[in-house]
Amino acid sequence: xxxxxxxxxxxxxxxxxxxxxxxxxxxxxxxxxxxxxxxxxxxxxxxxxxxxxxxxxxxxxxxxxxxxxxxxxxxxxxxxxxxxxxxxxxxxxxxxxxxxxxxxxxxxxxxxxxxxxxxxxxxxxxxxxxxxxxxxxxxxxxxxxxxxxxxxxxxxxxxxxxxxxxxxxxxxxxxxxxxxxxxxxxxxxxxxxxxxxxxxxxxxxxxxxxxxxxxxxxxxxxxxxxxxxxxxxxxxxxxxxxxxxxxxxxxxxxxxxxxxxxxxxx
Length: 266
Known about the structure:
This protein is an alpha+beta fold. The protein has ten helices and ten strands.
């Protein structure tokens, strides 16, 4: 991290912020706190302007071509799973999904819409490549194929695609942010809504949560929710299979069975 000390000055205390890439850091100096990231997407500037992530303070290009961004870092905490039913979560997700500025920026960056057909094709290729032949995988793929025509939705929006509770930051001043936008896509909002509802909110509360978001719960929405939940579950099985993580692989195969059973009963 010598390059960061050179950039900021030796008076700053710098520590890794975690994450898979090792490109994120916290920096502290005399009460100031920064979140630094190497080679963030230009998308970050729009997210900051929209108030969806902490304010972008500056961007600097290093001699080696790396671009460093610095955001104001707030005292606060990640949401707990039972916080996800809050009206503030529904309202922020609605704001994100209805932002023309976010959508225009992702389009300018060359993002193409993620469609159910492309998702299914990618999953099928990965399953074949990894040699997964469990019956439950075949049943899940058959369900995705069967419902493909029922989940077509043309009103694509910017989706975060990883609405895990750990990515929601509530500051001590009660401002909610959604962070870690590296996987953002243009897609059906049900990708975000479905994962959030299925994993965090009791089904008898879906209608109330969706009302706070601004939608009605109808049969097509239910179909779209479960389709994307099923697709994510297969993707998770693939992930843990490639990591040779037998424990989590077994857990996700069990979850996949539960989801398939649920969809089959609808």
